[in-house]
Amino acid sequence: MHIRYEVADKIATITLDRPDVANVQNHALLDELDAAWTRAAEDNEVTVIVLRAEGKHFSAGHDLKGGGTQTSDKITLEAIYEVESRRYLEYSLRWRNVPKPSIAAVQGRCIAAGLMLCWPCDLIIAAEDAMFSDPVALMGIGGVEYHGHTWELGPRKAKEILFTGRSLTAAEAERTGMVNQVVPRAELDSRTMELAGRIAEMPPFGLRQAKRAVNQTLDVQGFYAAIQSVFDIHQTGHGNALSVSGYPILALLDEMKSKLK
To answer: CA angle, 102 as apex, 98 and 103 as ends, to 5°?
Structure first.
C-alpha cells in the first residue's frame, strides 16, 4: 500500500506513504490515490479532504524507472497517450472536480507530477521549505500533462519556470496566488488541520455550491478546454522525443536526484 486513508471530525486525510523514495508516483500509487479520492467523495461523513505526504518531500514526480508509461518492450506514442490520458489527465481533473473542499499540505520538493497532485486541490498550504518545479523541458517536453501553470502562476511567471526549469519557492508561490498560506515546517500539519476543521463546520451544500461557482467560472474562461488542448501539445513532445532519441528520461532523472540531495 502506498496510500494511507483516515477519517476524523468530518475530515478525510489522504497521505502519500512512500517517503523512502520521496513519494514518487507509480501506477499503483496513482490508482490507490484515485480510489481514496473517490472514497472520500462518496462518504457522507466527509466534508473536507486533506492531501498530505509522509517524509521530507511531498512528491518527486513520476516514478520514471518503475511504473512509467512503458507497456511493452517497444514504447509507442499510442501507449504513452493511453496511460497518461487516464492516470494523469483524467485523474487530476476528477480530483479537481470532487464536490468537496480539498486542501494540499506541501513540504520539501514538489517536482513535475507532484504539481498534478496539489494543483487539483482547492487550497494549498506550503511549508517554508516547499519548492515547486517542472523541469520537464529537459525531456524536450513543454511541461507536465495537467497544464495548471498558466492558471496558477500567470503567463509570464509560468514561462519563466518552464523555460528555466528552476524551482519556485513557497514565498514566490504565495505571491502568485498559487499557495494560500506559508507556514513553518513544524506547523504544516496542525495549521492544515486547523483550516480543514474550520471549513468542515460550514454547511456541506453551501461548500459544494461555492466550489462549483469558482470552478465553473474558470471553465467558462477556458480552463477545461485549455487543459485538454495543452495535453495534446504535451503528447507532441513525446512524439518528438521518440523520433529523435527514444524515450529520454535519464537527464530528467539526474536533475531530480540532484535537487533531492
So the answer is: 155
Supply φ then ψ for residue 74, to 5 degrees: -105, 125
Q: Which H or E run includes 218?
A: helix 204-220
Q: How far apart are CA 88 and CA 116, in angstroms?
A: 8
User: pLDDT by residue (tens digit) across 106-135?
Assistant: 999 999 999 999 999 999 999 999 999 999
**Closest alpha carbon to 119 in 139, 108, 134:** 134
Residue 96 CA neighbour count, 13 Å, CB half: 23
Q: Are 102 and 120 in contact (CB under 8 A)?
A: yes
Which pLDDT value is given to residue 97?
A: 97
User: What separation, in Å, do the N-terminal and C-terminal C-alpha atoms of the chain show?
Assistant: 26
Nearest to 136 by CA among 34, 246, 235: 235
> Residue 133 — φ and ψ, nearest 5°?
-155, 155
The alpha-carbon radius of gyration of the chain (Å, integer) is 18
